[in-house]
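Supplementary Methods, section 5.1.

A reviewer requested that the exact input to the structure prediction be made available. We therefore reproduce it here, unchanged from the version used in the analyses.
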Amino acid sequence: MIERPHGAPERGAWRRILAEGIADLGELLDAVGLDPGVVGDGSAAAAAVRQFAVRVPRGFVARIRSGDPDDPLLRQVLADAREEIPVPGFVIDPVGELSAARAPGLLSKYPGRVLIVVTGACAVHCRYCFRRHFPYPAHAVAGRDWGPMVAAVAADPSVEEVILSGGDPLMLPDERLAALVGALAEVPHLRRLRVHSRMPVVLPERIDDALLEWLAGTRLTPVMVVHANHARELDTSVLAALGRLRAVGVTVLNQSVLLRGVNDSVAALAELCRALLEAGVLPYYLHLLDPVAGAAHFDVPEPEARALVSELMTVLPGYLVPRLVRELPGALAKIPVTVRLPAGTRC
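The structure derived from this sequence is encoded token-by-token as follows.
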């Protein structure tokens, strides 16, 4: 039994907090003191919401600067009329995942690893999400028998790591997650369990005793990959949640997406990387935006991204600089984007 520190969240409190989140564009604008005109054409913004609903936990909204339409946290969650403008090259399946399905809920993209689409639900709807058009009803394992999926993993001895993804896998109740992880742990050739989740950042109350118990109790080596794009996402409640994960032996990494108007400056990236280290989290990947339909206004072109990371390398030690990568359909790994130091730089 995990001993709950003073101030740690009560078991299951996250469900109530999740249910109290904002799921209406007008309510979100009211909460941050903004006029509806900031989203552009009203009918187009409404169409964007019908395509991909608004969802934001109130704790995340509290970190947004009131009255600032350019706040980097707000930009990530605020529906925008530009989402309805078709842009060549921005498509519904930007990384070719639909061709990587091995069994219902199971994607096999890279050697030695498989990804389980646990659920299509998320605590927050990030407007740049590369799976915003993903057909979750046909693929997510939540609510269905995962026996065929576990059997497919067991039948392939080359697989040593399972990645729980979604949606957000931590949207599932802990009893369901514990049962799934228990079944996977019985596969002898599996060694690592990786969980990709935004919830420690946007809804830190999710990191409660029930979650920590099954994470700490599995024989698989647990790794949590969280997702923060800006240093202001890491408030005291998030730092406490990350600390609880580390305290039970979970390796915690962070992946970010390079986003126009959010973190597309050396100052913002450096501040994020420093804040992550102080939280005991290693910056892992900085992704170029996956070209998903509806998110083109977030795009930072590759030459600009290279220049940003090149300069970042001159102000941070190497272990604090995340790897700049892009994902390409059919590739056997994330593709590193080559970055060179500015001429005359001394390491």
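The first helix runs from residue 13 to 19. These observations are discussed further in the main text.
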